Amino acid sequence: MVGGKVAKITCKISGLEKSFGRNHVLRGIDLTLHEGEVTALMGANGAGKSTLVKVLCGYHHADAGEIELAGAPFAPMDASDAIAKGVVTVHQSIDDGVIPDLDVATNLTLDRLTEPGANLFVNDRSLRRRAEEVAASMGLAMDVRARVADLDVADRQMIAIARAMARSPKLLILDEPTSSLSASEAERLFALIDRLRADGVAILYISHRMSDLRRVADRIVSMRDGAISGIFEGEELDYVGAVNAMLGHQMTEVDIEPVSGGAPILEARDLRLFEGSPPISFTAREGEVIAFTGLLGSGTTELAEILFGLSAAAGGELTLDGRAYRPASAAQAVAQGVFMSPKDRGSNAVIADFDIANNMTLPFLRAFSTFSFLSESGQRRAARDMIARIGVKCESDRDGIDTLSGGNQQKVMIGRWLLKASRVLLLDEPFQGVDIGARRDIGHYIRETSAGRTTLVFVAEIDEALEIADRIIVLNEAAIASEHLNKNIDLNRLVADVSGRVREPHGSGTDAVCGPVTAAQSKAG
Amino acid sequence: MNKNALEYAIRYGFIVLLAGLALFFSLYASGFASPRSAVFIFQSVAITGILALGVTCTLVVGGFDLSIGSVATSSLMLSAYSMVVLEQSAFVAVALCLVMGAVVGLINGFLIVKMRVPDLLATLGMMFLLIGLQRIPTQGNSVATGMSLADGTVAEGTFSAAFLWLGRHRFDLFLDRLLPVPVVLFLVIAGLIWLFLGFTRHGRLMYAIGSNERAASLVGTNVQRYKVVAYMISGVLASIGGILLAARLGRGDIASGNNLLLDSVAAALIGFAVLGAARPNAFGTAAGALFVGILLQGLTMMNAPYYMQDFVKGAVLVAALVFTFYLSSRRGGRRNA
Q1: I need a labelling partner for B88 at 20 to 30 A (CA). Which of A239, A492, B50, B94 fits?
Q2: Domain A264-498 -> CATH class
Q3: Contact A428, A343 (CB under 8 A)
Q4: Can you tell me the distance from the alpha carbon of A451 to that of B158, in angstroms, rounded to the nearest whole number?
């Protein structure tokens, strides 16, 4: 790494493979992780990075291939075995890592309580002393008697990491650690990472945030479709190359003749997604499909939520058909003809107890009832019609929704919002967990029906945007980075905009030197 | 075929058991198979059943109402107090009770929806509060004509005939004076709740809330309002139960209605198993209440001692829960495979 020092290899992965049924998730991973080096791992949803992490931390067993840890073969039996052997993982959801109702001291020493041979009685004083030692060794300054629930998110994150570090691991895996941290909280985490790096811990850092990677990464590894698609290291990290390798350009063949749209339907003027974020403005016109794309945390989800009335904008104005539009709830948005198919259908959209017809007609039950009494035949007729049009593969509209595959469930969830005409149709990650066939069907049907409304699609993956949109708007750190008509797009420019390089046209890598020494200077703006 | 057998067992097992039980008692308990005996069973479960239908509504939206028993006894005391001490008419007494039930439901809903108190805890708190509150106006005494009041006077009011009619009148049906008013009310309310939950859009949305609250709210459902309404239905039905109990007893007995909560919750939970629904439903709740009624009536007629009753109810409940959760989860697992 930086300075030409030859670092020892902490972990060497070779030929790692893992399948779930017919689904070949890891197709031969070769990767070495060095002592005192932060390796950033990037990959789109389904690229296999979480499976890789789960193999490393003992949740899954590899089907083929070898892992060496500090020179010895490493094949953890289960999660606790992996920890005992020196691989510690801090998972994305912070509250999985701490017990909010207990104090800091207990949280820091929790593992000791479960060790075999631990005392029956808990000696609070020695517990606190030990906790203070752990905290001091990590450079944490907090009252160990404080209840964890009263601490802020960053402190909780620190505690999860500190407890992990009490095991003195050789390899620390951080899964999206900044996803719920503010900028200043993240900075404290980075300082901690710098300390650990100096102590010689190998760190595997999973994140999509460019600003994170600029700050901490020594090396970037991109994954795509279960294989390593690019490794970027050296003095100047090639972020654009890394994003490119992560997203790839394996486009499905969709021929789009972009339309420019008719009358404006939805207009945003100086809309601000967060307090202090830059204003964004756009006009969505009748008949056009606009894709908003950007990396995780770039603001696409927040924009969708504001448009659907789930959260309030920090500033600016929206108009719908020329009139002020300020929905205070999903119900108000729906009443004004703004429909949204949310992301994460399992938790946000699917009613697991209902069959297809009832899932599909749920938003419009009023239209299927007389004096509040439902017309089941009406519901079933509408559902059967939509099933045929959007191509849901099922036996009948009475099938339980949980008997369908992911792609077919998603077709039902999107078909739900196409039963009635809308002014604005918002689709947040409509292709999440959807196979390529269903993805094509959905995209085709959305475009086919796009007349009479404006359609906004929020996707993280560029090829999904290219498959469905007339126009692509790239968001980066809650600002519009660029706008492209979907015709002969310069893909390299698009990827560069996504990764946030647009406002620094000459800075090819000057801010990319991320060694521990220069790290403090390289904070991304 | 194994799968079909399991499916069949889950769907019809409970009904077959109910029919088998009725047949068994008809054969072995003399006098069981008669219209009067059947009406007696219905009468014994009518009040419990009405309360259970209320709990069913809260279960449908993914909640729970522990306060129903105390709402019923409060309603019993309130109706007695308003007629005996305040010397009001039957109409006023009934209206007061219904309003009280609705207000308690509203407060429960408010605590759960706005104050974010977990449903079990909110309604448990309300239960305690009401158990205490109903004793305050009478200094802990039962209410009956002729009781002496705190100021030294004697309560002169009486239960009006119209009020007692609610609990004691019997309609003619084939036989003279066969069908008591509470049974008719139970059947009517069961029918209404069945229609409401099963066949109206409001019922469908309530089931959607119970299954995935977030998804329901993201399609534009006013989740909070439906939850509050569910608790209000529960409160009103519980107060109706209390009115019927008061009308049957003819006095404001402080000690009656102790078993109402457990019996009605049991009926609603047993109802999950009926027709393999694996979720709260009005038909199942009514069938569950009847099941318990038939079992107790039969056992009593076969000279089983009264102190076995709670044990039998508990055993039925546990069996029904296993039936619902274990068998249905196996069914679900197979369906996905």
Answers
A1: B50
A2: alpha beta
A3: yes
A4: 73
- Domain span(s) for CATH 3.40.50.300 in chain A: 1-86+169-237+509-525, 264-498
Over pLDDT 90: what percentage of chain A?
35
3-state DSSP assignment of residue A118: coil
Are the C-beta atoms of residues A495 and A329 closer than 8 Å to each other? no
Nearest CA in chain B to A375: B199
Which pLDDT score, from 0 to 100, does residue A9 have? 87
Please give, rounded to a whole number of angstroms, the shortest distance from the CA of A484 to a CA of chain B: 31
Minimum CA–CA partner of A405 in chain B: B336
Asked if A330 is an interface residue toward chain B (Cβ–Cβ < 8 A), one would say yes
Domain at A1-86+169-237+509-525: CATH architecture: 3-Layer(aba) Sandwich (3.40)
**Is some CB atom of chain A closer than 8 A to the CB atom of B225?**
no
Asked if B160 and B89 touch (Cβ cutoff 8 Å), the reply is yes
Q: Which residue is closest to A373 within chain B, CA to CA?
A: B200
Domain boundaries, chain B: 9-332
Distance from CA of A338 to the nearest CA of B (A): 11
Range B9-332: architecture per CATH: Orthogonal Bundle (1.10)
Q: Is A378 on the interface with B (CB under 8 A)?
A: no
Contacts of B195 in chain A (CB under 8 A): 373
Is residue A202 a contact partner of residue A35, using CB atoms and an 8 Å limit? yes
CB contact, 8 Å: B141 with chain A? no
What's the 3-state SS for A435-491? CHHHHHHHHHHHHHCCCCCEEEEEECCHHHHHHHCCEEEEEECCEEEEEEECCCCCH
Spans in chain A with pLDDT lower than 70: 1-6, 21-22, 45-46, 93-96, 115-118, 179-180, 182-183, 248-254, 501-525
CA distance A429 to A410: 10
Question: Chain B within 8 Å of A205 (Cβ-Cβ)?
Answer: no
Q: Which residue has the tokens 């090396």?
A: A219
CB atoms inside a 10 Å sphere around CB A72: 9
Mutation target vs A (from B60, B200, B219, B223; most A CBs, 10 A cutoff) = B219
**Gyration radius (Cα) of chain A, Å:** 25
| Beta carbons of A403 and B199 less than 8 Å apart | no
CB-based contact B200 A374, cutoff 8 Å = yes
SS3 A178: coil
| DSSP code at position A313 | -
CA dihedral B194, B197, B202, B206 (to 10 degrees): 160
A353 to B204: CB separation less than 8 angstroms, yes or no: no
How far A238 CA lies from chain B's nearest CA (Å)?
Answer: 40
CB B215 within 8 A of CB A343: no
Weakly modelled stretches of chain B, pLDDT under 70: 1-3, 327-337
Radius of gyration for chain B, computed over Cα atoms and rounded to the nearest angstrom: 21
Strand residues in A343-464 grouped as ranges (E): 369-370, 373-374, 424-428, 454-459
173-202 in chain B: CB under 8 A from chain A: 195, 199-202
This model of the complex carries an ipTM of 0.86
Cα dihedral A469→A475→A478→A480 (10° resolution) = -90
